[in-house]
């Protein structure tokens, strides 16, 4: 009989795809498969020809882009010199995770499925496309698809005689065992610390594996104190980092949990924050977490690594139920982890945005029984947050500025919900002493024209204006005029960011600015209305002067409304039909003359 092994490869940006891959891994182990779960870029892709069965789990980011940890794989798999039968031995399945509110829903999963077919691989199932917008989230698609996957896998690779599927009420061993240093047999001096992880990367630009510790220079509120939304202009000093960037690029920031939450978590689980430990993988196929130093303290683990402020996923409740000795708590946890209990879980957890720490407080008898060895199975790592860079190196050498909206909102829970990174950054005060923030830069999705005569039309309501501030600063320093900005906010006196800066540029003839203050009159006015009012100017710039158009901001309604307003301009000023206007905008997008950078 063929070797019973399965490889699960994931491309994940926010952790959802990694969580789904881990779940498939756990289910594979219950069926006695030899199983490895790896990020796509950690895997030697040339070895795919030797793999009998591979499950690909991939998210789609930005405007149809692959996640950061599968970009190298993506480039390799689309090499033109790969023969059409390169993967003829491979059987595979693709699970996509996306959000149907974005135009390129699950684009990466669809394209990967098609490419694997082109290379001769055989799908064991049709591609599954999970959707965040579904009432029950991606699990609505994943659950039935996984049932079909295991039915197919067991027909291809039956269980050996005498073996049965490990039941769901039996706890699988943890990925890692904690070896506390006072118990560890190896010499302390032989263990590498976190800095040693990076010795072979000397001279490399800062990255997630080796961020630059940037000094915060200033942290200034740019909205009026009476305004409901706290927005900050934050500046970092990157002298000596080697970081280079252009307008449209993104800075990644690694946040940390608040001290009070760290203390409460350690108290609940009866952990000593000062205790040092080493992690030991329990399976030969499991590698150590690359973002965690060895040795490590409990304090570092909880403060910098475990995302105790995230909304826990279904797998969290399933694993938690195994540790519960309290009958009532165990019953509830089992309900939340069952397929039938997903509406109840959504109501308890997702809708009110209840955090992992709050859930642990709700299940005190279970929480105090959690074995530390399972912490990394139970709680995902803190993901870095991305921010559009709001400044240019040509104007602010050795500096990075960001526009940060502090996330704070109410649900039915008594405590307001707080964004981890924005709350942490807004709390830092460089006037009270030196503050360092780990960061690195990556290429953004937007690029601006080199030609000084090419106009740029930028639509950036709210903090969506950040990349355009960088672009306008850069283009002004290069003496490029023809900069048109549509900016929208609520009130001119409350949240008109960078007003004096824009007014100075208007006076110097570097900027044409159109503003929409939605609450300053009875009828709400948005950027799309201003686009309609200035149709003749825009059409002249687009059709006669080959302008490039950019949209940045919240993905909810604005991008579609702005695209519709542009198509209306093409119809009214360019004499196009509705379908011609549609095709024209698509052609602009394909030629990179229409670019968007949106987030939810």
Give the secondary structure arrangement, pairings included.
Elements lengths: L4 E7 L4 H15 L3 E6 L13 E7 L11 H7 L13 E8 L8 H12 L3 E2 L4 E4 L7 H18 L19 E5 L31 E10 L9 E7 L12 E4 L5 H10 L7 E6 L14 E2 H8 L8 H10 L3 H11 L4 H9 L5 H7 L1 H4 L7 H4 L6 E4 L10 E7 L2 E2 L7 E2 L1 H8 L8 E7 L13 E4 L6 H12 L5 E7 L9 H9 L4 E6 L9 H7 L1 H10 L3 E7 L3 H17 L3 H13 L3 E6 L1
Parallel strand pairs: 1-2, 1-3, 3-4, 4-5, 4-6, 18-19, 18-21, 19-20, 21-22
Antiparallel strand pairs: 7-11, 8-9, 8-17, 9-14, 10-13, 10-17, 11-12, 15-16
Shape annotation? globular
Low-confidence stretches: 184-201
Helix % is 25-40%
Task: Report how far the terminal alpha carbons are from each other.
Answer: 48 Å
Q: Number of helical runs?
A: 19
What Rg do the Cα atoms give?
A: 26 Å
What is the mean predicted local confidence, pLDDT?
Answer: 92
Provide the structure class. alpha/beta
Largest sheet: 6 strands, parallel
Strand content: 15-25%
Please report the total strand number as a whole number.
Answer: 22
